[in-house]
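FAQ
Q: What does a multi-component entry look like?
A: The components come first, one per line:
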Amino acid sequence: MRNRSIRIERVFHALGDSTRRAILDRLVDAPASVSKLAEPLGITVTAVMQHLQILEEAKLVHTEKTGRVRTCRIEPAGFDALEEWVRAHRTAWERRLDRLGELLAEEDAG
Amino acid sequence: MRNRSIRIERVFHALGDSTRRAILDRLVDAPASVSKLAEPLGITVTAVMQHLQILEEAKLVHTEKTGRVRTCRIEPAGFDALEEWVRAHRTAWERRLDRLGELLAEEDAG
DNA sequence: ACAATACTGAAGTATTTACTTGACAATTTC
DNA sequence: GAAATTGTCAAGTAAATACTTCAGTATTGT
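Then the predicted structure of the entire assembly, as tokens:
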């Protein structure tokens, strides 16, 4: 079994904010420094740092500081966890509908 | 082109709360009334109503009132939008990594 | 008709959250 | 080594959010 222990809680919390999603949108194109991320968002570097912390906890972003600049990149683990969650819920729901369908078919036949 | 106009904004906002996710978990198993949803959550029916409104706006849940009871069911549209978003972001990111790989390979060769 | 059930609406509260400011630390660059 | 760049820390604020209570309104059962 793969390490699925990334708390989906954190992933959803992280993605629940539009600024953080904007950060992800940006990082999908290319890695960026904290100040480069802040610039188009019109918020302070401090604010971006706070968002980055949440994104890191959700394993949606990985950051690394070399010298005085912190480089931020997409990390796929959080996305994996999210996709997994959606898939699990959808299939559970579809299975139920199938069972329901069978029951109705039986009723019709009987 | 399919109807993708469900605001992903709303989907993420809806899923950003653990009580709402618990409601979804419950509805995946079976449809339920508002009071049945409230019972195991230990919150008032009013609170559940407020959550349901948000889940409906995100098209994750559909509710329908017949008589005095409102029945709540999973609606797949919101899940579709979510899956779509994850996939789009992942592929964009992977495409970039591929381009980067090619560039590095060229550098090595040259 | 009356009581019980199931939800709805308005209004209030306490906490969380996104953001700021301002002071500071660590690199680069000149 | 002085000055600019880039990030970090602590503390504060205003708005959003998840709840609550209480007072209704339909609908159903006796």
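Q: Is there any commentary attached?
A: Sometimes. For this entry: The longest strand of chain B covers residues 61-66.
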